[in-house]
Specification:
The chain contains 15 helices and twelve strands. It has about 425 residues and is α/β, with parallel strands linked by helices. It has two domains: about 150 residues, Aspartate Aminotransferase, domain 1; about 240 residues, Type I PLP-dependent aspartate aminotransferase-like (Major domain) (Aspartate Aminotransferase, domain 2). The chain has a seven-stranded mixed beta sheet with strand order 3-9-8-7-6-4-5, sandwiched between helices. The chain has a five-stranded mixed beta sheet with strand order 1-2-11-12-10. It starts with a helix and ends in a 6-residue tail after the last helix. The structure holds pyridoxal-5'-phosphate.
């Protein structure tokens, strides 16, 4: 097996790559680590390694990156989740600087013990005001991943049930695993399928949490929240909606897909990540105050991890303020127009699946194209996100364009042109 593998990576190190290739091996000697090292060296030596390429400035629509080879590329970026451009907004940066001056670099402790500062309370209040519902609270986490992990595993225990949309993000799945609850999946966005799953559970005597998302980053489609919540309530299940890709962006006032589908007061738990439209890092649970108070105390990823750093927290307060003002309205309008514009350039020519948001996947299929394609796209002027097996089914690998409110039409044209050129080169034009 190792001989076969050695031959494969020696002969075709670049075009034979798939993500699962190095995920495990049998035996005590960790062959996968040695094989990965060998493969990485070959691919990097050929200047074809496109992962973790350092950016030389902020996450603006135009960026410069430097590969390990020393080669620099000027790129139009479609790979950042900085949907509203707040990561580099001058007021956000000033908010961060002021907090940094006042509170110093790190929180240096768990939020439950010594790590909570007045500025964290201000962020909680800012988010609560943004949603505008009575009796709701905010539980802050130092990552969106940690928010899902902590919220689910503190709410659900051994013997309870977690029922997830099949396209759920890894952090929701990991939260369910950590909870030790029984895990079931339902077909993506299919409330009828969900009903069948719920019927199979002894729902009258069981605690159940149904997990779904506002916008799914795999396909760029919206969650069918209204239907999912209606079915869940029929069976006494609580519902968690992860609005990682939609809070501040979707809904008339930016309150997410929950606002857009009029289920804000029916969702039991809403998760936000601060690493996307907020332009920072961290995450939170928004729920009834008695729930957030409990989660604050019992979520392990919060209890045993340092609180959000004050600088980021100061920046986040500004981002929420801006998103709730006319500035947010303008940016929401622009991102939606930009997404429609890019979609119109790609639809019918490549497979963009069911995208209807600011996330536009282009499905190219064969996972072995992943590295050549991303190398080609970088060398042709764009940075774009990759998603391959096992994150998506086999032969459903895709690039994903994340559109922001700050892209110009000229930059979107550059993106469309590079994608269509690559589709021609690698044979995934559909027309
Ligand atoms: C749906 C969803 N939830 C949670 C997360 C985790 O967020 P973070 O990167 O802020 O930890 C992500 C990250 O991509 C996500 O897409």
């Amino acid at each position: 097996m190792t001989d076969f593998f050695d031959k494969l990576i020696q002969e075709e190190p670049y075009t034979q790559y798939t993500l699962d290739m190095f995920s495990r091996s049998a035996g005590k000697d960790h062959a996968e680590i040695k094989q990965f090292a060998k493969w990485r060296e070959l691919v990097t030596g050929a200047n074809k390694y496109t992962f973790e390429v350092p950016h030389l400035g902020a996450q603006t629509p135009e960026i410069s990156v430097r590969r390990e080879s020393g080669d620099e590329y000027d790129l139009v970026s479609f790979a950042s989740y900085n949907y509203l451009g707040y990561s580099y907004h001058p007021e956000v940066i000033q908010g961060a600087k002021d907090a940094l001056d006042h509170y110093g670099l790190g929180a240096t402790g768990s939020p439950l013990l010594n790590g909570t500062f007045q500025i964290h309370k201000e962020l909680e209040d800012g988010i609560s005001d943004f949603f505008g519902q009575e009796d709701y609270g905010v539980s802050l986490f130092s990552s969106g991943y940690g928010a899902n992990l902590g919220a689910i595993s503190a709410f659900i225990h051994k013997g309870d049930h977690v029922v997830l949309d099949r396209s759920s993000h890894a952090s929701l799945i990991d939260g369910a695993v950590l909870s030790q609850g029984k895990i079931s999946l339902f077909r993506h966005n299919d409330a009828e399928f969900l009903e069948k799953v719920l019927k199979r559970i002894d729902y009258e005597n069981s605690r159940i949490l149904v997990c779904c998302e506002g916008v799914y980053s795999t396909d760029g489609d919206y969650g069918t929240l209204r239907d999912i919540i209606d079915v869940s309530k029929k069976y006494g299940a609580a519902v968690l909606v992860d609005e990682a890709h939609s809070l501040l962006v979707a809904g008339e006032n930016g309150r997410g897909v929950c606002e857009e589908q009029d289920v804000l007061s029916e969702a039991d738990m809403i998760i936000a990540t601060f690493s996307k439209s907020f332009g920072g890092v961290g995450g939170c649970l928004y729920a009834k105050k008695k729930v957030t108070n409990y989660i604050n105390y019992y979520a392990r990823s919060r209890m045993f991890s340092c609180a959000l750093d004050p600088g980021v927290t100061g920046g986040l307060i500004k981002a929420v303020e801006l998103a709730g003002s006319a500035d947010g309205d303008d940016r929401r309008k622009r991102i939606s127009e930009n997404a429609d514009y890019l979609r119109s350039k790609l639809a019918g020519r490549v497979d963009i699946g069911t995208s209807s948001s600011w996330i536009i996947p282009v499905i190219y299929g064969d996972e072995r194209l992943t590295l050549p394609l991303s190398d080609y796209l970088q060398k042709n002027g764009i940075d774009i996100s990759l998603m391959t097996f096992p994150a998506v089914p086999k032969n459903k690998s895709r690039i994903r364009a994340f559109v922001t409110s700050e892209h110009t039409h000229e930059q979107l044209d550059v993106g469309a042109e590079a994608i269509l050129k690559a589709a021609e080169e690698y044979n995934f034009l559909t027309e």
